[in-house]
Amino acid sequence: MRITERNDTHVQVNRPLIDEFAQVLDGLEWDVALLQEAPPRWFGELQRRTRSAGARVLTSRNVCPPVQAVLADWNPDLIGSWEGGSNQMLVREPGRIGEHRTLTLTRRPERRRMHWTRVETAGGTRVGVANLHASAGRPAQAAREVLTAAEKATWWSGDDPLVFGGDLNLRPASEPEAFARLEERFDLREPTAPDAIDHVLVRGLEIVEPPRRLTPERRELTEPCGLRLRLSDHRPIAARFVA
């Protein structure tokens, strides 16, 4: 949740960044937000500050949350990702979250999980929404996890449309077979870009604005010193669908 180096344009700060992250997230336009590997204890605050309801599943490195929380407040740079991770889904009012299910995809080398909800939109349409973070640095394993997740999410969604997103850790340019199978078997289509690993695939909805990476500045704020503070190592992905 913080930039990993200092340079002429950006600064690294050793403090919790919930306030800044909530500000940036709230400033973006969305009905449903999918977050991967967010600190679990941010969940309630992010809901409150973005006027949303949420669902969460714990992922990796959640060993002793009370101790991890103290260390994260004292020295975020020291604990780093060992604060613990979670995949979070936020739905802005008047949308509502109904059924919520989870699926453990693997426990090694790190626990990876998908969670799925049935979201009811303001117009009364029901949409299945799945959110996951697949294994990094292991394309073959990530492909197996993503296809397993897609099969389960499709089954849970039934006849409802499905939005299937997250950090898939798969690039269409280097792993085209995985995306071909997602489309052929589950009708999940429109990857973000050939070199992207973050995707929002969809089935059963009209694609009004295909998934795209927002500019790097959309994940940044300016510090009092004049340098930029980057709040995520991934650029946000945005897409627009209608029933």
**Adjacency order of strands in the biggest sheet:** 4-5-6-7-8
Instruction: Report the total helices.
Output: 6
Separation of termini?
A: 33 Å
The helix/strand order is HEHEHHEEEEHEHEEEEE
Class per helix and strand makeup: alpha+beta
Helix coverage percent of residues? 25-40%
Please report the total strand number as a whole number.
12
Mean pLDDT: 92
Describe this structure in words.
With 243 residues, the chain is of the alpha+beta class. 26% of the residues lie in helices and 33% in strands. The protein has six helices and twelve strands. It has helices at 18-27, 43-50, 65-74, 76-79, 139-157, 176-186, and strands at 32-38, 52-58, 86-92, 96-106, 112-120, 126-133, 162-167, 198-203, 206-213, 220-222, 228-230, 237-242. A five-stranded mixed beta sheet has the order 4-5-6-7-8, covered by helices on one side. A three-stranded antiparallel beta sheet has the order 1-3-2, with helices on one face. A hairpin with a 5-residue loop joins strand 10 and strand 11. Helix 1 (18-27) packs parallel to helix 2 and helix 5 runs parallel beside helix 6 (176-186). The chain is globular. The chain starts with 17 loop residues before the first helix and ends with a strand.
